[in-house]
Predict the 3D structure of the following.
Amino acid sequence: MKKAIVIGATSGIGKSISEILILNGYAVGVTGRRLEILKSLKEKNTNKTFYCQMDVQELSSIETICDNLVNQLGGLDLIIISAGIGDENKSLDFTIENNVIKTNIQGFTCVADWAINHFKKQGQGHLVNISSIAGLTGNGEAPSYNATKAFQINYLEGLRLNAGKSGTNINVTDVRPGFVDTAMAKGDGLFWVAPVDKAAQQIFTSIKRKKKVVYITKRWRIIGFLLKIMPYSILRKL
Ligand SMILES: NC(=O)c1ccc[n+]([C@@H]2O[C@H](COP(=O)([O-])OP(=O)(O)OC[C@H]3O[C@@H](n4cnc5c(N)ncnc54)[C@H](OP(=O)(O)O)[C@@H]3O)[C@@H](O)[C@H]2O)c1
């Protein structure tokens, strides 16, 4: 039986992927801050689900919690990081920006580093992170969200290069969703909003194919291309 950990499995994309993994025969270790939801996930699939409460901002506890989950699962083939936050912050309140940085940069990096080091020791493994198409450009209304997603995109490439030099069989997948219908997708002007189960199914297919970079849903690749070539004169009008 394959074994996976999902960081941020209590709602949205992470919860939906956890359910898909269980349906596909994985044993899954789920994490998040909301303990009651973790317990209810365990109750639905007692034999195949393990949980540990985790706040990725509490960096000093991450290694212990991940090791603990691996012990409960009896190994690890796949880890998916879906914990992430973002907030509109036109007034540039540093408390808001710092909170996003602590979760999307510090928490993400701590978990991703633990995963790659663990996979190096065992010679194989697959790290998946849900970044965002937002990481391809700046955003005046939520500067820290787009900037932290840009960090994740770049860091994942670094980890892929780092692991590639270790002579091991480690895969790194960067998942870049457009809009997905979850608590996070808020505000006006949303379009091509994917149902969360459709997005999670496409992510699972990409994981099986061990893709390096994937846009969710697929047509968001077009927007990704346009964002990369868009002149500033157009960007500032969006
Ligand atoms: N929805 C979209 O349109 C969209 C588009 C592009 C990218 N994404 C990315 O997809 C990822 C998942 O988001 P979602 O849309 O599924 O939103 P969501 O439903 O709000 O899920 C966010 C998950 O992250 C967890 N989380 C947040 N802060 C955490 C912390 N400090 N420690 C541990 N877990 C934490 C939450 O669990 P707890 O609250 O229980 O801790 C929850 O399980 C995020 O990284 C987001 O940036 C989403």
In short: The beta strands are 3-7, 27-32, 49-53, 78-81, 124-130, 169-177, 213-216. The two ends are 47 Å apart (CA to CA). The CA atoms of residues 81 and 108 lie 7 Å apart.
